[in-house]
Write a structure and sequence with these properties.
By secondary structure, the protein is of the alpha/beta class. The protein has 19 helices and 14 strands. The protein has a six-stranded mixed beta sheet, sandwiched between helices. The radius of gyration is 26 Å and the shape is elongated.
């Protein structure tokens, strides 16, 4: 990516939606524009974890305004990520279908640990480089992320279902800021966050940083009230003072403290209670507010994805394959074969889109056997389950779902992927992967020089695999498997026929 290019990141949080537009200058991102709207989507989840029509409409209205600011941006220049509320919402697809049409760009729902990783990236890029061990915490609307890291490397990441919106709704109903409500909220937060004392406790870090909404509002309030010895420093004494002030105020709508804006009043009680719980559990005495957040991490992650050698997803795939002791040589062998076949099948696409499709094939090939460590029978189903439920650095939930479908579909019946039959790019990826698995079944490098494959848009004749003279006699087992593959594809709208020696 060249100097002067623009990038944009959207954070669809539980309390606020944020849009950051930046320009790349000498390897660094310089802010051009920033927009924030308090949407309170997290407050629109009912007891059955369904977003209310009103909450969805607030989100759509905000995204329509953001879309105006993104006119002229290319897909490779925009990353939109959604967090805890849409992770939880059972009707999220209903919201996302309309939201993506309004915005004009895909929206990635990311896992809690991926959110934590991006938060750390955002904070680390805004801090001076140092060897210090850092604790970074972010109290969002419905989740709290805790990260231990050094430099640009996040090492221990966790996400907990506790946040300012959720805790304010549960323990400060009708905005009542009483001592009893604070005590109940802090005890409940400690009970939920208890494990963090072991993984993120005082012995694991040198300096503690906090970022984003709740911590930022508290830091602002303490600074403006002259209750902190240093700029944007949060101390235990400061938290005690703020809790006392809020209790004396009695009700959220009556708060009159500089630093707590109107839209923050309703959720400050929950955010403060969670932060006080973290101070006690993790042994924090001083917390430095850090400029940097999820959206900044998403911007820098886009830069990393421009180069395959710096794409964190590649390292995460290698780590996952190693964890399940997948056959590295076989994975690489199938990857080479599948990519060679896909090169003949690839649908018309821009270079970056083509590269992403190829990376997905490579990753699926390297991971296709990870389920075999659970059970050899139906190992493709176990592998798909792992990918659908694992936290894999760098991936959104829908990216992992696509990989899981490739792994699930690399063998066996195709009917299980009926929902994907209309996705031409996916079906071509799947064809290349399935054929590669067949051609590499003996765990040897296949001879592909004279094998060709074409895609035909005619119904029932989607793919034709051409084999050279004498091939079937030389490789009878592979030929048998290919004939079975023809039968499998006959039960789809695509179809497969064997040409040349494969007839």
């Amino acid at each position: 990516m060249h100097n002067g290019n623009r990038l944009a990141a959207l954070d669809l949080g539980s309390n606020s939606f944020r849009l950051e537009i930046a320009r790349l200058e000498l390897g660094q991102l310089q802010r051009m524009e920033y927009y924030k709207e308090t949407v309170r989507q997290g407050g629109g989840l009912d007891a059955e974890r369904r977003l209310s029509p009103e909450a969805m409409q607030r989100g759509w209205n905000c995204l329509a305004r953001f879309a105006e600011r993104l006119a002229g941006f290319k897909p490779s220049q925009v990353r939109a990520v959604a967090t805890q509320t849409l992770r939880e919402a059972r009707n999220r697809e209903e919201f996302l279908t309309v939201a993506q049409q309004i915005l004009g760009f895909p929206i990635d729902v990311i896992s809690g640990r991926e959110e934590a990783r991006l938060i750390y990236q955002g904070v680390a890029h805004m801090l001076p480089q140092s060897d210090e061990r850092r604790l970074v915490l972010d109290i969002g609307g419905r989740s709290t992320e805790l990260i231990i890291g050094s430099g640009y490397q996040a090492q221990t990441m966790e996400s907990y279902r506790v946040g300012s919106v959720a805790w304010s709704m549960r323990y400060f109903q009708e905005g009542v800021l009483s001592l009893r409500n604070f005590e109940r909220a802090e005890i409940a937060a400690k009970a939920l966050l208890d494990d963090a004392a072991i993984t993120h406790g005082r012995r694991h870090w040198d300096v503690a940083y906090g970022c984003s909404g709740s911590v930022g509002a508290i830091a602002d309030t303490l600074l403006l009230a002259h209750r902190t010895p240093e700029r944007y420093l949060v101390t235990r004494e400061g938290l005690d003072w703020l809790r006392d002030k809020l209790i004396k105020t009695q009700r959220a709508e009556a708060i009159k403290l500089e630093g707590i804006k109107e839209e923050r009043k309703a959720v400050i009680g929950g955010g403060l209670a969670v932060l006080r719980a973290l101070f006690d559990l993790l042994g924090v005495e001083r917390l430095q507010y850090a400029y940097g957040a999820l959206r900044h991490g998403a911007l820098y992650d886009m830069l990393d994805r421009q180069h395959q050698d710096s794409d964190v997803r590649a390292a995460a795939i290698d780590a996952l394959a190693a964890r399940f002791r997948s056959d590295v040589e076989q994975g690489a062998r199938i990857s080479r074969a599948a990519l060679r076949l896909f090169d003949q099948l690839a649908p018309p696409a821009k270079r970056k889109q083509r590269q992403e499709l190829e990376r997905q094939i490579d990753w699926a090939a390297r991971l296709h056997e990870i389920g075999s460590r659970i059970s050899h029978a139906d190992y493709h189903k176990h592998g798909a389950y792992i990918l659908d439920n694992a936290d894999v650095a760098g991936f959104s939930m829908h990216e992992l779902n696509r990989l899981s479908h490739l792994v699930l579909g690399h063998r066996g019946k195709l009917r299980k992927l009926e929902s994907r039959f209309g996705d031409a790019a996916f079906m071509r990826q799947l064809m290349a992967l399935r054929l590669a698995v067949i051609l590499c079944h003996a765990r040897q490098e296949p001879e592909l020089e004279q094998i060709g494959i074409t895609a035909d848009p005619a119904p029932g004749r989607g793919f034709t695999l051409g084999l050279p003279p004498g091939w079937a006699a030389a490789w009878p087992q592979s030929a048998h498997l290919l004939r079975e593959e023809v039968v499998a594809w006959q039960k789809t709208p695509w179809g497969l026929r064997l040409g040349g020696d494969g007839r």
